[in-house]
């Protein structure tokens, strides 16, 4: 027998109890390191499903199933020497006999790894039972919540921490009126300071989630309007139909207690730096383990423990576990939240810089050392684009700039982001898998020539995914430094960037996707990346109606039907109201249409009127009446010019110094229909009081005594950006000329789906370079850009007016090919005098007499 192959008697038995994310990672590491040459591996899972991604658990309610959430391939557990016991809880551990005892029998072990994780803590509250005692931990828990939501209108989460807010998002996604009850005086009290908690609260409330702070539930009783009543101190209460507890976790240490292992002072299996318990044959990893009395509730420390234990069991050297960085970057209910290092400034001598924007509920705090040279921690709410840079300053002790506050200032005032070249080789890029910049460089030196190869080799960005942006930056920088051409192809069908494709379309006068694909692409049909991107380029260059036969297949649903699809399958109708100015006759016409088709109506933030609830077959009729009344499409469905907001300016306002309404009308009529890489929003304010909020727009215009100040590259949304002052005291003609050049230069050079603010950040030379191109004509493009804009302006026609005159195009607006009926599965209920779509949880509550469309 080959001496390098273990005999049967040499093979030991290794048991892993727990098949969560950490237990699974340990198994992966063991197999990767050749553990099957020396061990028969038994893995026990209490759940009937193999390991799945708990970090993205809430996506289960968004359509993902257990298989799509599963970690790794099922084949991993089908290898010879590996036995996965699903749905088989371990009942006891007999340390003397070295056996694990289950309902199906006993299994001997030589080495044992406890990866039992944690369980949700539910406070002992009188009346908490059934649907008032739900938890948010496993897929089975989520199934129970979904079933409870089917007969509910309101749901409450007890606990305003990370998991609590995830659970609230899940309830909201199920169509419930969601609320969060937190005992502490702020949300996420462990990660955020008071001001960060306030900013997060404001953002979450703006999303329609109720937040109740400093509330301790003392009992739960029957409610009057809802199923349950949560009774707080005094006479305060909150009624709800279901309650999900997310009030923290407790280590799952029952087996350790049963077999007499040493525990931590607050529970958990006590471990040393090698993750060994008080029994030299038993290891503990993840949330069930207590190192130095602390339990780590994030996946990255658990992975770190798993790697160390796997290395030791395979006879390899392993760095001791000495605690872990608990920095986190999250998106909760769509809100960016980041916490780094000493976020509360608790270290002696720590000083803080804070940036507070109450208008957008954004907050940033940078904690620095007493001498101002080292970053110690940070808090971010509303914009995590600062996270990667701040994390590297904290983790690697990089010397701060002379003015540390510049690291958290808004775009235009902030210090440059920390580039990949500034990171030391020891800098951790992926904390989940402990991948350093040096490891990435080694992978590239070993033959990896693209991002996918580096991810496969190092596993970077395959955990929580929060490091994906930084990883891409490092890989591209290192490839370029080695003289390797970085592939920036749009997709597999076009080996060009969007900017290069734009140039090809312009130079060769290409007007169809088919011609573009035949001359410069590969394949026959394209994909969901290149079709809309090239469709946008063609529209930007030639301004052809979006409903032309050669353009329709390139569009997404909204552009295809020239309306925004809503969550119940109906569409919104948004007629253009330039500058927000509308005649009484126009208001009456919109009102008559809304009344005739029973549409929900709402004034938007862009000074328009939205009409919601139109079915597909109704759209041509609605637009026919609106166009007859003098309206045209507002392009609310397109990556194009949306709105030009204005105040009343000098016409009415005693503070106005210019006619902002006329300028808003001129701008909107000039650029309406302009297709671009992303949506465009404008505003014109008649004085510096800024009632039109011009400084949060892609193009903002503010009146002065001498003319107009022009601001560019701002936006609201998930990543708000203040616009930057571009030029001052412009006359009307010069203002329009600069806007023409700016917009066409953006359309020519931006990447697909890149907003003006992000495009501005990517420009080498920054705002000064942009001024040189637009104002000083440093590239000699000014006349060309103006001529291109004039072509777009001259070719404008209302897309809906074009569509309703063409019988072939109208055939597209049918729910059923051979039937004029509407969709029988669309339901509405009346609320506040208007109809709204039925939430999923209400479908079984609709009275027989209720309206069904």
UniProtKB/TrEMBL annotation:
CDD domains: NirB_Fer2_BFD-like_1, NirB_Fer2_BFD-like_2. Residues 566-628 form the Nitrite/Sulfite reductase ferredoxin-like domain. Its cofactor is siroheme; [4Fe-4S] cluster; [2Fe-2S] cluster; FAD. Keywords: 2Fe-2S, 4Fe-4S, FAD, Flavoprotein, Heme, Iron, Iron-sulfur, Metal-binding, Nitrate assimilation, Oxidoreductase. Pathway: Nitrogen metabolism; nitrate reduction (assimilation). Residues 429-476 form the BFD-like [2Fe-2S]-binding domain. InterPro entries: BFD-like_2Fe2S-bd_dom, BFD-like_2Fe2S-bd_dom_sf, FAD/NAD-bd_sf, FAD/NAD-binding_dom, FAD/NAD-linked_Rdtase_dimer_sf, NasD-like, NiRdtase/SiRdtase_haem-b_fer, Nit/Sulf_reduc_fer-like_dom_sf. Residues 638-759 form the Nitrite/sulphite reductase 4Fe-4S domain. Residues 14-293 form the FAD/NAD(P)-binding domain. Residues 327-397 form the NADH-rubredoxin oxidoreductase C-terminal domain. Belongs to the nitrite and sulfite reductase 4Fe-4S domain family. This is Nitrite reductase large subunit NirB. It comes from Metapseudomonas boanensis.
């Amino acid at each position: 027998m080959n001496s390098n192959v273990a005999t049967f008697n040499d093979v030991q038995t290794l048991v892993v109890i727990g098949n969560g994310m950490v237990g699974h990672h340990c198994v992966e590491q063991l197999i990767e390191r050749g553990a099957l040459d020396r061990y028969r591996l038994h893995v026990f899972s209490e759940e009937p499903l193999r390991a799945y991604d708990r970090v993205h658990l809430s996506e289960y309610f968004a359509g993902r199933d257990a298989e799509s959430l599963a970690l790794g391939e099922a084949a991993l557990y089908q290898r010879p020497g590996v036995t996965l016991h699903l749905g088989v809880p371990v009942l006891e551990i007999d340390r003397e006999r070295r056996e694990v005892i289950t309902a199906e029998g006993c299994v001997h072990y030589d080495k044992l790894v406890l990866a039992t994780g944690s369980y949700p803590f539910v406070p002992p509250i009188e009346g908490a039972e059934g649907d008032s005692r739900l938890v948010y931990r496993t897929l089975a828990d989520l199934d129970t919540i979904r079933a409870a939501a089917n007969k509910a209108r309101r749901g409450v989460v007890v606990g305003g921490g990370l998991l609590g807010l995830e659970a609230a998002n899940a309830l909201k996604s199920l169509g419930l009126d969601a609320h969060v009850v937190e005992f502490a005086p702020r949300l996420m009290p462990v990660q955020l300071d008071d001001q960060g908690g306030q900013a997060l609260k404001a953002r979450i409330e703006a999303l329609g989630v109720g937040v109740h702070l400093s509330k301790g539930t003392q009992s739960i009783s029957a409610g009057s309007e809802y199923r349950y009543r949560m009774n707080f101190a005094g006479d305060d209460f909150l009624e709800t139909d279901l309650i999900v507890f997310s009030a923290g976790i407790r280590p799952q240490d029952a087996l350790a207690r049963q077999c007499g292992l040493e525990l931590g002072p607050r529970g958990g299996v006590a471990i040393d730096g090698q993750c060994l318990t008080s029994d030299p044959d038993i290891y503990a990893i993840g949330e069930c383990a207590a190192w130095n009395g602390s339990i780590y509730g994030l996946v990255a420390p658990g992975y770190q423990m798993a790697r160390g234990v796997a290395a030791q069991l395979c006879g390899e050297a392993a760095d001791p576990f000495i605690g872990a960085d608990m920095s986190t970057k999250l998106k909760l209910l769509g809100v960016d939240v980041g916490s780094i290092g000493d976020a509360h400034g608790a270290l002696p001598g720590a000083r803080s810089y804070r940036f507070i924007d109450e208008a957008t509920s954004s907050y940033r705090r940078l904690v620095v050392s007493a001498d101002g040279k080292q970053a110690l921690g940070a808090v971010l709410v509303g914009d995590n684009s600062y996270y990667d840079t701040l994390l590297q300053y904290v983790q690697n002790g990089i010397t701060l700039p002379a003015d540390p506050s510049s690291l958290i200032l808004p775009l235009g005032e902030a210090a440059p982001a920390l580039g990949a070249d500034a990171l030391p080789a020891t800098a951790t890029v992926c904390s989940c898998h402990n991948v350093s910049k040096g490891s990435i460089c080694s992978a590239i030196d070993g033959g990896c020539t693209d991002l996918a190869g580096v991810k496969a080799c190092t596993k970077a960005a395959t955990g929580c995914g929060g490091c994906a942006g930084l990883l891409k930056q490092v890989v591209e920088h290192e490839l370029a430094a080695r003289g390797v051409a970085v592939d920036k192809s749009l997709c597999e069908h076009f080996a060009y960037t969007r900017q290069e494709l734009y140039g090809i379309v312009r130079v060769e006068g290409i007007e169809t996707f088919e011609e573009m694909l035949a001359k410069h692409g590969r394949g026959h049909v394209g994909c969901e990346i290149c079709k809309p991107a090239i469709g946008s380029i063609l529209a930007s260059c030639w301004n052809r109606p979006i409903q032309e036969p050669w353009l329709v297949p390139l569009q997404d649903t909204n552009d295809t039907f020239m309306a925004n699809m809503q969550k119940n399958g109906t569409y919104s109708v948004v007629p253009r109201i330039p500058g927000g100015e509308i005649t009484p006759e126009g208001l009456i016409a919109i009102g008559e249409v809304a009344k005739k088709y029973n549409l929900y109506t709402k004034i938007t933030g862009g000074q328009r009127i939205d009409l919601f609830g139109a079915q597909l077959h109704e759209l041509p009729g609605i637009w026919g009446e609106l166009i007859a009344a003098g309206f045209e499409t507002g392009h609310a469905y397109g990556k194009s010019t949306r709105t030009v907001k204005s105040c009343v300016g000098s016409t009415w306002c005693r503070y106005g110094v210019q006619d902002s309404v006329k300028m808003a009308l001129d701008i909107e009529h000039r650029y309406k229909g302009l297709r671009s890489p992303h949506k465009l929003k404008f505003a014109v304010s008649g004085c510096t009081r800024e009632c039109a909020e011009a400084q949060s727009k892609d193009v903002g215009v503010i009146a002065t005594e001498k003319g107009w100040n022009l601001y560019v590259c701002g936006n609201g949304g998930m990543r708000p950006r203040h616009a930057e002052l571009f030029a001052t005291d412009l006359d009307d003609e010069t203002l329009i000329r600069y806007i023409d050049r700016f917009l066409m230069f953006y359309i020519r050079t931006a990447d697909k789906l890149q907003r003006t603010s992000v495009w501005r950040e990517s420009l080498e030379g920054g705002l000064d370079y942009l001024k040189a191109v637009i104002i000083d004509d440093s590239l000699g493009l000014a006349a060309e850009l103006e001529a291109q804009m004039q072509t777009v302006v001259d070719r404008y026609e209302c897309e809906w007016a074009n569509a309703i005159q063409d019988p072939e195009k109208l055939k597209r607006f049918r729910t059923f090919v051979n039937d004029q009926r509407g969709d029988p599965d669309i339901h509405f209920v009346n609320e506040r005098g208007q109809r709204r779509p039925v939430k999923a949880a209400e479908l079984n509550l609709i009275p027989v007499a209720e309206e069904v469309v």
